[in-house]
Design a protein that fits this description.
alpha/beta, elongated, 11% strand, eight-stranded parallel barrel
Length: 779
């Protein structure tokens, strides 16, 4: 076997490292939502007597919460500025963007844009919360100053104020309002301050898990800074714990993306060689301090590699016999039950008790949009909140059923979910059986009822973010999105118009009562249907899935195992032929002889991809004549028929994706993700122009200019090449396609696809070569 025969052998070999213990996790990604929900219904359904007890407990919790609703806090803020209001959206946009703006002038413009149109004054005094009203006044000041300086009363006074203070005053006012919100979400600016602030809550019975705020590292410096922050926090938390241990004392939560700037499946070797040692160092520090360490959940495309890292941690002999390792699982993920099963098996295999924090999930909107943009087969998450709630309860049952392997930590602010957990766990409560968790600044009103000795008397751990105002915003935005949605319990608990029976509805009953149980939300377009009736979205490949990668690796091997491609212009038409690569000829060969050049992989010159026969002057002249003769016939072809041919070519291109990916990688030197994008963009171009013909046939009726030359660059050898050819064909032109001299094989396969779709070989012709071919066409 030569390198040129098997250019993807190393890639395939690395993929074969798929751990079979995680195979079912990978497979669960592809399950349709209806099928996933159907398997959860039985596990999440309680008997009549148990369901009655859950309703009674949930009702008591909601009534107690509504009795003390006047306490305000962040729940009141979220209710006052719901994301369904113009002001809520403006506040969200501002919070997310303000600290990303590098200069004061642009910050001022952003503030004016987002605040001027808001009716902030309508919110003053609307909430009983001092915090909400104080924040609102800050926004009124900023909004009024940004909007006008001519209104009476307050507006006139504020106008005089801005005359003295100028726009920086607005900026300061908004900054102050944002800081007020931030202080409600973070437990302290430093770990020492957070620990000090937590003492009062600990005296009431709360535990804490501290999270050092910050997003994914973008460079080595970031990763080092986050590592140092975690190490310092572990030492400080260990001192504060004073020997209370992993269950009764405080712990820490860490994000793996903060520890390495390339934390993704594509960089598996670097993650294993660089990130894993850092993670193990932190876990060993946590063991020495005897505090629990939880690996936080992140985006779905990082799940499988995070499980791989967790396995390595659990199998490390230095951690044998210590139960302080924790992992966070998101119930909105369709893979959640499979992950839970994997964690139970892993814990038993490594003879430990894993801490597992079950959460609803905080990246739902981005998971939906990413799946649509990437052309995935389906979403990795549920599209209905009832399905997520159902999954949470079903997975809670699994966790509670494995007390030897799992210490469950249930993170929820939903009274019905909480009451369901209490019922599933049974009575009496046993020490260290399980615990609840809540977010700092948001869950205490509910959990004050839970931890009280005369209440449920269950332990609760507060997830306590630590950081400065500058590190808060991304976290703040996630919390506002998560809890500001109109389906959120935190949002709805403060709305007296919502009946208690609605708030405590059983998700299993809700699913069964729906018109189509388990069906995805109809208002959320599946990735394939992203463009509605207009056109089908191109399909992508989940390059974070071990199963998908294994399949792709096999297809790439098959596609590269045959003889090299030959790109040439032929009298019978242009296209690609799979045949033994022609023998290269030198540039000094007789003018009558075709110039054949070898095409090699720019990343590996030993990998001969194929060869190209440069179009001769005679071939160019013949192609021009054929195109000129074909153009009137093609222009007269009905627009609907042209659209059908372009759509057929798009479907064929989609089917040939593995071969095209392999060719783009080998000939153009692109990465596999970029090659996937190339193919998808080419497919989208074909379908887009076909759609234009169907929407307005005049776009392609009697508008052809004749024979057009399409000369494409090397940097997008398939996407731009196909895009301009498709546009010219749609408009009724015959096409002479001249690809970049570096990438003729990709172009040859694209033209071959057009011909296979039924487009005549005199309507689209390939003329490979360099500057001399381009010059002849332009002339």
């Amino acid at each position: 076997m030569t390198r040129s025969d098997r250019p993807f052998e190393a890639f395939a070999g690395e993929i074969r490292g798929l751990s079979e213990t995680r195979a079912h996790v990978a497979d669960a990604t592809r399950r349709p939502e209806r099928e996933a929900v159907a398997t959860l219904l039985e596990a999440a359904t309680l008997g009549p007597e148990a369901a009655a007890r859950v309703r009674a407990n949930a009702r008591a919790l909601v009534e107690a919460l509504r009795e003390k609703r006047r306490g305000g806090g962040v729940e009141a803020l979220i209710h006052e500025y719901a994301l369904s209001s113009q002001e809520g959206v403006a506040l969200m946009c501002l919070a997310e963007a303000l600290l990303r703006v590098p200069d004061d002038e642009t910050r001022d413009a952003l503030i004016r844009d987002k605040l001027a149109a808001g009716d902030w004054l309508a919110h003053v005094g609307h909430s009983p919360s001092l915090f909400v009203n104080a924040a609102t006044w800050g926004l009124v000041v900023s909004g009024k100053l940004a909007a006008t300086n001519s209104e009476r009363g307050l507006a006139a006074a504020l106008a005089r104020l801005i005359a003295r203070g100028g726009e920086p005053l607005i900026r300061k006012g908004v900054d102050l309002a944002m800081r007020m919100m931030g202080e409600q979400f973070v437990s302290g600016r430093t770990i020492d301050e957070a620990i000090a602030n937590a003492r009062a809550r600990e005296a009431r019975g709360y535990r804490h898990s501290y999270d050092m705020l910050g997003e994914a590292a973008v460079g080595a410096q970031d990763a080092r800074r986050y590592y140092d922050a975690y190490a310092h926090a572990i030492a400080a938390i260990g001192r504060a714990s004073a020997g209370r241990g992993i269950y009764d004392g405080p712990g820490i939560s860490i994000k793996l993306s903060a520890l390495h700037p390339r934390y993704c499946r594509a960089q598996r070797a670097r993650v294993t060689g660089e990130l894993l040692p850092r993670l193990l160092e932190l876990v060993l520090l946590a063991r020495e301090a005897d505090i629990g360490l939880n690996i936080d959940a992140e985006e779905a495309d990082r799940l499988e590699i995070s499980l791989e890292l967790l396995e390595a941690v659990c199998e490390d002999p230095r951690l044998r016999g210590w139960n302080g390792v924790g992992f966070v699982v998101q119930a909105y993920s369709k893979r959640c039950p499979a992950v839970i099963a994997h964690l139970i098996a892993l814990a038993r295999r490594t003879r430990r008790r894993l801490m597992v924090r079950l959460v609803k999930g905080a990246y739902w909107d981005s998971e939906i949009k990413r799946a649509q943009v990437d052309g995935m087969e389906d979403f990795p998450v549920f599209t209905r909140k009832a399905h997520t709630d159902l999954c949470f309860i079903a997975c809670a049952r699994s966790l509670l059923a494995a007390p030897d392997a799992i210490y469950p930590q249930f993170a929820t602010h939903n009274a019905q979910t909480l009451a369901s957990i209490v019922e599933l766990a049974g009575e009496p409560f046993r020490d260290r059986q399980y615990e609840f968790q809540c977010l700092h600044g948001m869950g205490e009103p509910l959990y004050d009822e839970v931890i009280a000795p005369d209440g449920l008397a269950r332990p609760c751990r507060i997830y306590a973010p630590v950081g400065t105002h500058e590190t808060l915003l991304a976290y703040l935005v996630r919390r506002l999105l998560e809890n500001g949605a109109n389906t959120s319990f935190v949002n709805r608990i403060n709305d007296a118009s919502i009946a208690i029976d609605t708030l405590i509805a059983d998700p299993a009953d809700e699913v069964r009562a729906s018109a189509s149980p388990g069906a995805p939300h109809p208002a959320i377009a599946l990735p394939r249907a992203l463009f509605g009736a207009a056109r089908v979205n191109s399909g992508g490949i989940d390059l974070a899935s071990e199963r998908e990668l294994a399949r792709l690796a096999g297809e790439l091997l098959d596609a590269s195992a045959g003889a090299g491609l030959v790109a040439e212009a032929r009298a019978a038409g242009a296209g690609a032929a799979v045949a033994p690569a022609a023998t290269p000829t030198s540039a000094s060969a007789p003018a009558s002889a075709p110039l054949c050049q070898r095409i090699v992989n720019p990343a590996d010159h030993d990998d001969v991809v194929g060869s190209v026969v440069v179009a001769s002057d005679a071939q160019i002249e013949a192609a021009l004549a054929r195109a000129a003769a074909a153009a009137p016939r093609w222009s007269a072809t009905p627009a609907a028929q042209r659209a059908r041919l372009l759509e057929r070519a798009a479907d064929l291109l989609q089917q040939r994706m593995p071969a095209l990916i392999g060719l783009v990688v080998r000939e153009a030197g692109k990465s596999i993700p970029n090659a996937v994008g190339e193919v998808r963009e080419a497919v989208d171009f074909l379908r887009y122009y076909a759609h234009r013909l169907r929407v307005d046939p005049r776009d392609g009726q009697a508008s052809g200019l004749g024979a057009l030359a399409c000369i494409s660059p090397w940097n997008f050898p398939l996407a731009i090449f196909t895009g301009q050819v498709a546009a010219a064909l749609a408009a009724g032109n015959a096409v002479l396609a001249k690809p970049a001299e570096q990438t003729p094989l990709v172009a040859a396969l694209a033209v071959d696809t057009l011909l296979r779709a039924g487009i005549a070989d005199d309507v689209v012709q390939l003329l490979p070569g360099g500057a001399e071919v381009g010059a002849a066409l332009v002339a």
